[in-house]
Amino acid sequence: MDWGSLHAVLGGVNKHSTSIGKIWLTVLFVFRIMILVVAAEKVWGDEQQDFICNTLQPGCKNVCYDHFFPISHIRLWALQLIFVSTPALLVVMHVAYRRHEKKQQLRNGEKFDIEELKRTRFHIRGPLWWTYTSSIFFRVLFEAVFMYAFYFMYDGYKMPRLLKCSAWPCPNTVDCFVSRPTEKTMFTVFMLVVSAVCMLLNVTELCYLVVKVCVKEPRKTAALK
Amino acid sequence: MSWGFLRDLLSGVNKYSTVMGRIWLAIVFIFRLLVYMVAAEHVWKDEQKEFECNVQQPGCENVCFDHFFPVSHIRLWALQLIMVSTPSLLVAFHVAYRESREKKHNQKLYKNPGSMDGGLLCTYLISLIFKTGFEIGFLVLFYKLYDGFNVPRLMKCDVRPCPNTVDCYISKPTEKKIFLVFCGITSCLCIALNLSELGYLTFKHSLKCLKRYVKRGHTLKRESPKRKLEASFFLKINPEPRNGKNPLSLKNLSSKYI
Fold first, then answer.
1. Is B235 within a domain?
2. Structural domain boundaries, residue B152
3. Where would you say this protein principally sits, based on its record (chain B) (predicted)?
């Protein structure tokens, strides 16, 4: 089970998404998950090993590292990506339920082709519209929460070179040096920008879906009249 | 052999699960297995290398690490995931057994081998009970072994060959605590889902049995005029009651038809 499995699960959503949704999915997998796996993980790979404190006191380095990095950037990003991807599963489940219903209906009548049923694309209207818009709303919410969590935990998005630590058992205020701070800052800013782009795409998609429904309803009412 | 094998095995079970079972499976795959593999494993990667004691005595660090962590959190988590996923295989085995029976007798014995009725329902309920049992068992084990889900920064160790009470520092205790709490929450969520599913299936099938029983009772009452006709026909042929018994009495009529 890894990111590839998540890709396989979410690939099914792609068929039933809008164009903006497909762009969002591509940005998620190429600019966030792939960057995380092939680059960011290596930058943070030796983060604790190369975190050096100017003291010989055993335990001081461990305690200072834990104090400044309660949860590593890499793990927080991984959790963010998982939480942001999961609302799309609501759409997958809804589509699976619709397919199951259609299969029951067709079973009572004539013969049907399972492969064709699997290939059928459901349009985003009715209950599926509500599921889809709820999933986009939750995505935006999770993105915002994680971006705020990052800001709150690390006091901004910059990785400092030097941290001053006076947690016990450090004998006094000790200088601790973070490994590769500039590279880490660059990746943090990059992930932040891509997060913002994804949020923008989600908000645009939400507006598009709402406007589409608002425009269609008056036309339908006018046609009925 | 890796987690992918378990994933493929459980994906096959998905077909025979209820809606809640599929939600449970999605939670296990995404919030437990995926989080374990992409995040949690790396947190505990260097746990012994980064475990530091304030002493130069050789062997003291090893002994203290072993004393405080008889089984690593991450290994216990992995065991929990495996034990909790496997009862679902009972259902897959039962369906495979039904299909092999049909093949053996070369006739359709079941409306649908995967439909949740009769023996398969019992198997499904048993698998739910086992899943819940394992979840609760592991949560209790975590709690008992590590004194809750807390991971302290400092532990005091006085096991031989440490010369006296020595301070030992665990690496990344806060991050470990966050992931352990996450593991505990998802475990509790899965327990709640399993119990809801158990309750729902038991209630649904009890209701079905009750309806069937009531329907049968109504059917019997509707048949009584017919029975009267048959009894009167019987009397015409045999006018005198046999053995002093009245053939039209409910007791004598009902013993024949229920």
1. no
2. 4-217
3. other
Give me the pLDDT at residue B253, please.
Answer: 40
As a whole number of angstroms, the distance between CA B122 and CA A26 comes to 44
The closest of A42, A40, A25, A101 to A76, measured between CA atoms, is A40
**Distance from C-alpha of B6 to C-alpha of A153, rounded to nearest angstrom:** 36
Please count the residues of chain A. Answer: 225
A72–B contact, CB cutoff 8 A: yes
Q: What is the pLDDT of residues B94-110, one digit of tens each?
A: 888 888 888 887 777 66
Question: B34 and A82 in contact by Cβ < 8 A?
Answer: yes
Token couple for A37: 């796996």
Question: Does the CB of B173 have a partner CB in chain A at under 8 Å?
Answer: yes
Residue B255, in any domain of the structure: no
Residue B82 Cα, gap to closest chain A Cα (Å): 13
What CATH number does residue B45 fall under? 1.20.1440.80
Q: Is A34 at the interface with chain B, CB within 8 A?
A: no
Instruction: Please check whether residue A62 touches B, CB under 8 A.
Output: yes
For B168-192, b/e burial (b = at least 16 CB within 10 A) is bbbbbbebbbbbbebbbebbebbbe
Chain centre distance of CA A120:
27
Within a domain: residue B252?
no
For chain A, say whether B117 makes contact (Cβ under 8 Å).
no
Indicate the pTM of the whole model. 0.79
Residues of B in contact with A72 (CB under 8 A): 43, 172, 175
This model of the complex carries an ipTM of 0.78
Q: Does B245 map to a domain?
A: no
The reply to whether residue A72 touches residue B43, judged by beta carbons under 8 angstroms, is yes
Residues 6+ apart with CB under 8 A from B155: B64, B68, B167, B168, B169, B170
Provide the number of structural domains found in chain B.
Answer: 1
Question: Are the C-beta atoms of residues B125 and B27 closer than 8 Å to each other?
Answer: no
Cβ–Cβ under 8 Å, residues A36 and A74 = yes
Q: Do B153 and A62 touch (CB under 8 A)?
A: yes
Q: What is the pLDDT of residue B227?
A: 58
* Residues whose CB is less than 8 angstroms from the CB of residue A161 and which lie 6 or more positions away in sequence, other chains included: A177, A178, A181
Taking the alpha carbons at both ends of chain B, their separation in whole angstroms is: 58
Low-confidence ranges of chain A (pLDDT < 50): none
